[in-house]
Amino acid sequence: MKRILKVVLVISLFSFILLSVFQYSALNIDYFENKFEENNTDRVTGISEEKLLDISKEIIRYLEGDRKDLLIEIGDEKGYVFGDREVKHMEDVEKLFRIGFFIKNVFLTVSILSFFILKFYYKEKLKTSLIAGGIIFSLILAAIGVIIVFNFNKAFIIFHEILFDNDLWILNPKEDVLIQMLPSNFFSDLGFLIVKRYIIILIIIIVSLLMVPKIKTR
Questions:
Q1: Fewer beta carbons within 10 Å, N or C terminal of the chain?
Q2: C-alpha neighbours within 13 Å on the C-beta side of residue 208
Q3: pTM, whole model, 2 decimals?
Q4: Does residue 94 have a pLDDT over 70?
């Protein structure tokens, strides 16, 4: 039972950290702004950078559950920024984020419960398990990151085919504002950023644990 709980603790804790890093990175307006400047998105879309940031903030609010739809008006002109296909695709994306938030909270709850059971009921020393788990997760994620970087387009397509049961994610870069705002390098660079931040956090955790001679139990 103790071994099972240790495995549960490691998986739930480091999965929670990964989802937290993903959430922070993917819903960070500063990242949107940096990519817009890098990609000259205002020229590509014909929308001012200020308006692009306003639209991005609404996208973030929508994905966080603070907005009911993505029917964002263009401005003084009539019409909306995103067409029906883009709006419907983002509805699917929002559902995935909602599921992700729920799973993240489940991982947090499970990791806390398993930690306290191991620490205070079984009087287990968890230092070795956490270090080993951190190293394993770092290596796995680094390997996945390398594979994705060198085969991003294929991985991107497979990712969408697995997660979505429709083809609404296939957009026209000449007409659809959503893909003009968020081209492939937006996601490839985001993936690299998430992997980098996650590994840095795991390294900090591992080093911190190594600096502690022993996790004492009562």
A1: C
A2: 8
A3: 0.89
A4: yes
Read off the pLDDT of residues 22-59 as tens digits, 9 standing for 90 and up. Answer: 999 999 999 999 999 999 999 999 999 999 999 999 99
Contact 31, 190 (CB under 8 A): yes
H-run or E-run covering 37: helix 29-39
- Per-residue burial over 95-119, b = 16 or more CB atoms within 10 Å of its CB, e = otherwise: eebeeeeeebeebbebbeebbebbb
Rounded CA separation 68/91 (Å): 10
**Rounded-to-integer distance, Cα 108 and Cα 213, Å:** 26
- What's the CA gap between 216 and 24, in Å, rounded? 33
Domain boundaries, the chain: 2-211
Checking if the pLDDT of 13 tops 90, the result is yes
Give Cα 39 distance to the centre of its chain.
21
Q: How many CA atoms within 13 Å lie on the side-chain side of 71?
A: 5
How many helices (H) and strands (E) are present in the chain, helices listed first? Answer: 9, 0
What pLDDT is attached to residue 34? 97
Q: What is the DSSP letter of 182?
A: S
The amino acid at 218:
R
The DSSP annotation for 64-100 comes to TTS-S----B-SSSSSBSS-HHHHHHHHHHHHHHHHH
Mean pLDDT of the chain: 90
Q: Which of the pair, 117 or 146, is modelled with greater confidence?
A: 117
